[in-house]
Amino acid sequence: MRAELLAVGDELLFGDIVNGNAAWLGRQLADVGVELTTSTVVGDNVEMIAARVREALGRADTVILTGGLGPTQDDLTREGIALAAGVALRRDPFLEAALRRRFQALGRQGPVGAGFEAPEMNYRQADLPGGAEPLPNEVGTAPGIRLETAGGVVYAMPGVPGEMYPMFTGSVLPDLLRRAGEPAVVVHRVLRTAGVWESVVAQALAGEVDRLAPVGNPMIAFLASGGQTRVRISARAGDRAEARRLIEPVEEAARAALGIALYGVDDDTLEGTVLRLLAERGETLAVAESMTGGLVAGRLTDVAGASAVFRGGVVSYATEAKESVLGVDPDVLATSGAVSPEAAAAMAAGVRDLLGATNGLAVTGVAGPDEQESKPVGTVHIGMVGAFGTLTRSLRLPGDRRTNRIYAVVQALDALRRTLSVHTC
Amino acid sequence: MRAELLAVGDELLFGDIVNGNAAWLGRQLADVGVELTTSTVVGDNVEMIAARVREALGRADTVILTGGLGPTQDDLTREGIALAAGVALRRDPFLEAALRRRFQALGRQGPVGAGFEAPEMNYRQADLPGGAEPLPNEVGTAPGIRLETAGGVVYAMPGVPGEMYPMFTGSVLPDLLRRAGEPAVVVHRVLRTAGVWESVVAQALAGEVDRLAPVGNPMIAFLASGGQTRVRISARAGDRAEARRLIEPVEEAARAALGIALYGVDDDTLEGTVLRLLAERGETLAVAESMTGGLVAGRLTDVAGASAVFRGGVVSYATEAKESVLGVDPDVLATSGAVSPEAAAAMAAGVRDLLGATNGLAVTGVAGPDEQESKPVGTVHIGMVGAFGTLTRSLRLPGDRRTNRIYAVVQALDALRRTLSVHTC
């Protein structure tokens, strides 16, 4: 089965938002082995939408639309599909009644106040192209659409991810799979690395790729983002077990080649791995940050349940705070400066003591755009204090302020991860 | 002039990365009034690339490709363009020599080590479709391509944003503008609001939209993301001054309707506005965070020069840290709990004193997924201490852990912004 995606909306075309829906749907379709060959974005224009739907159906068995199902005048997906299929729009009385009940409930309980009457234009969401079936929307007001046409089946879903995801999983995907019969299954295995550049990872695996995956099944892809590199091994087979058997030897060879750079697989995160390593040791963590300004703590607390391990942190942005709050020796600041390995080590020790944690992690450096203490932009010093003693790591990042801060967060978390992995207790 | 975008790459189609290049190019084209009607993503397949190029040229005057220009076997944009245009690829001796010099320099100085010989496949980057001109790449190794065809002009640029942005601005855009003659100019004005929902902003402006922009020029769009809502007023005219004259009365009416919800325009940020308000008062700020775990501090320190105003912060993730580091009265924690307006106010006062700042801002709450102290997920209490006295603001957010944390950051910064705006010194 061949599918195409068609996202509708001027806000996508003009770059007000990125097309994250296409990325999400691309992953879902790849996971079930539906072949996706083209993904298109079109503006809020009935004729253009209709033309792109017709073209997509000429190339693929199904086209999956997102966006343009809302109540306002620029929501034109319903009209575009109807035009493409050569049918008229009709208002569905059951959908209309459901919308009316929903708006009345809002008027009674909701934030808009009692006596609220939804503007008439809201009931456009009860319109369907002739012959179409509505797809239930458990979250928002706009139902989805499924329409069988001569050229293939058309699905349309709202553009809001929170409404689209459950509609795809609950309605569109089961319908697609039913039609596809027994598709080939694609299984992915993602190996996650940090602290090494993509080209180094790729080079480390170059020989293995040619040896173990010469015919493109399994396939290996290298994906770098946010200072980390993922190695994705994908295999296509008749069932999941067979696909996993194809992946196994490649994964084994890749693991050997990556060594300690490998921190996890699939949905693992670097911050989750650090917290897990600490939990396994029965230890806790406190962090002190200057150049990363709270982002290391912010990343760790992204993880639900971080409080079992993470005690807290100090953002010592003003240099005096390093002394007054973290107790860094003023001699260290005067001699080596606030951006130095010595300051990083003292900050780590200070925050560990202040928050009563087993381990302290600290980052100081120069994010940019200007140098600081005559130290160049990109300078980073990481300090670590724990049962392993006191360690520092210094590096120089090549990016701008934003990139340097993100990479410094990754490097700090990865430095602690490597230290905890090597110094087992 | 009508343009289409065509991004090449399995990694885009399968959702490994989002198509940020299309968003960026969409903004650039909209800004100069080039009409963009369709944007497409196609996988790493020569025939597919060629087919999409031909289709795009059938609809538009130019097609701008990104991606697929690298050295590896799956970089097939060169071949795809050649197939679409019915020409052969030829190796450009000047490009090849330049690549050879570049790789030799890498071998001498670079991280790959002395004696490095670039694999032969790298010289595929010196191939050009017959009749094409190379576009200089100041950053990376792959040159861009410009090819005049019967159907229109084809541009191809690397997919790496750091290489593509300067190539577009330096080579593609000037060439496009030269061809377009004197295009209509589109001017945008963005009004930025925080602390109100998109629907409330839209409702506040509904009457004005119909009255001032009935014919779609200027046009008003509402764009909600990350807990903030932007109102974009766009006008198309013969020159920028005329476009600005069209925008002016709509902007004035919108400003009046938005009131204090409006925090800035165009590229202003909420965090930058908070820092500017503090700098104007000659004041400083310290923040204490639990549920946001460092993200408020992280957002403030995104701004270069934040150190003039921002002293630092404490992430008091463990409840004991609120007492031991911030000096919150244990009676407050015992009576009201760590998630309470009283705790938020005490945290704000504590961090202000600890870091010697003029103002303290604190956030405590329940991000989720589980309730805490029997308080429901989404509970947020914001505390503010400054020359204006002590203020708290409590709210209930409807999202999951990730959304609640992002929205809490925005609500905390916005609460302080509104307070500083109202309590002028």
UniProtKB/TrEMBL annotation, chains A, B:
It comes from the Bacteria. It comes from Candidatus Protofrankia californiensis. Residues 4-179 form the MoaB/Mog domain. CDD domains: cinA. Belongs to the CinA family. InterPro entries: CinA, CinA-like_C, CinA_C, CinA_KH, Competence-induced_CinA, MoaB/Mog-like_dom_sf, MoaB/Mog_dom. It holds the Pfam family CinA. This is CinA-like protein. Gene3D superfamilies: 3.30.70.2860, CinA-like, MoaB/Mog-like domain.
